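Example (one chain per record):
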Amino acid sequence: MKQLCSVATLFCCVGRLAVFGLAWSSPPARSEFTTSLNHGSVTSSSTTGQSALHAAASAPRRVKRSEAFLGVHFDFHAKATDTNIGARTTPEMVAAILDKVRPDYIQIDCKGHPGYASYPTRLGNAVPGIVGDPLRIWREVTAQRGVALYVHYSGVWDSHAAAMHPEWAARNADGKPNPRAMSVFGPYVDRLLIPQLRELAGDYGVDGAWVDGDCWGVTLDYSDDVVRSFCARAGADRAPRGPQEPFWQEWKEFNREGYRAYLRRYVEALKISHPEFEIVSNWAFSDHMPEPVSAPVAALSGDFAPDDSVNSARFTARCFENQGRPWDLMSWGFSRKTWRAKPAVQLMQEAAVVLSLGGGYQVYFTQERDGAVRLEKLDPMAEVARFCRVRQAWSHRSEAIPQIALLYSRAGHYYESSRLFHPSGSGGSGILRSALRALLGARWGVQVVSEHHVQGKFDRWPLWVVPGWTYLEPQFRAELSDYIRRGGAVVLIGDGPSRLFENDIRSASARGRVVGAPGAELVEAVRHLWPDPIVSVEGPGCVDVSPRRIRGTRVIHLVNTGGPHENPPPGGVTHIPPAGPLTVTIRCSRAPKSITAQPEGQQLEVTWSEGVARVVLQRLDLHTILVVEE
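Predicted structure:
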């Protein structure tokens, strides 16, 4: 614990000194910085770049990523062995995709994890088998149709760069270059990543990048100069190899701060040269990275687990919704276990979870090895797009009405996990997921919150659940203890929280808590402490309940989470049994003017007495929104 107390002091210095380049030198002046990043790249001053920008400027206005709701994602991670890339990419193919789906934006392959660019870049890493310029075709057609175009670009994970420039790669503990992970402290960001993004923005007029393999691709970097810098700042003799060695927590945080600085560096560099170019870094500031947003990314995004996606979406969406930035989540359009396409109803159920929590939605389909798209793959997406659009007005950018706060502790997770940025690796995160499923199964509104969401705001939530964390920062513990002493309701799960709050457990003024595994015991404890939730739902079926507000109006999202989504059959989920009839009870200070089920447009019969309104929904297929006019 003593080592942890020194982390904040240590990284006050690192935040100022963690610049890039192996010598850890001061950042260059702005004029030198711009010149060095543009060296060898195609900038917006090129003839083709001016032509692309002119065409984009005269086309219909495109929805910015920070405003977007619906997208479709393609990639194929081009390899050196791929041939004829672009041979079948035609304006007609792109137009057919837009006609079928009518998205706000499209994301296409640009540079995948193998590190080869699937367009004729001048930066030296183009895949050999390119025919023509497929990226320009995608850009011209999408611009003409007023659809934003983003590229899928693999960031930290770049196997080709690691092979060609091992001096750019992170070093493993044995001193050998990592075969795929770039060093976030090294020259890769300046020598390839920023110049290539500027080429895409300037020469092609691309709207932005969805950077994959970034935070979750970062590894501990044992490069000599990185270790030397760490030791000088931490007062260590060597970089630790594991949790049993001194300075392990400081070493992990040093590498995390290196990534944060790397992310800020390339996002801010593009803002300087191409202010309209929007960057989204996959899984940054998410369940992988439960911390405040510290880089000017345009939005937050992630592709949740391709199998058991409903439970994945229930968790990851709640980690995004309180971050104060636009966000979306991406389904895989196929199963990773079987590689068979998911039926439309399966994708609709995944979409419903995301929409019910205020997010945007996109679906991932693979491109062929030559970059073309088989249009029949998109038939389910056309249905899914219609499903989403009719719910957009009552879902997109809605805000939760606080009910249960389920603590995802940044400090607790980072303390336990050996991974730098990943939701696994800590006992608390596993207990948290189980607790979330139990709470949602009881049909309560739940928000997943971290320390930075709640400073001085504990009273916003009528009940707190603390799942399994063995370490919490002293200030946060003190604030939560004060909440308990003032009569706040808190449920503690597991031995870790019971030890952290043992004084509060002994205090007669505390309202209650439970120690044990999540499940029936957790649900009973919550019912005892919190008998009057704002919404209650009774009736058959598996139903997630999300009380929210949108533009000042209260909306109750009901999502049917039944069906075999945890273990789908080989052909995917083709049928989800309807839930209902459902009796929905809503606490209201006065009788509502109306309660309407949307998007069906069905006005429900309301009974109201003593501050409680009741309606009956005869059938819940997938996702219905009760709009309460008060």
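Caption: Residues 1-49 have pLDDT under 50 and may be disordered.
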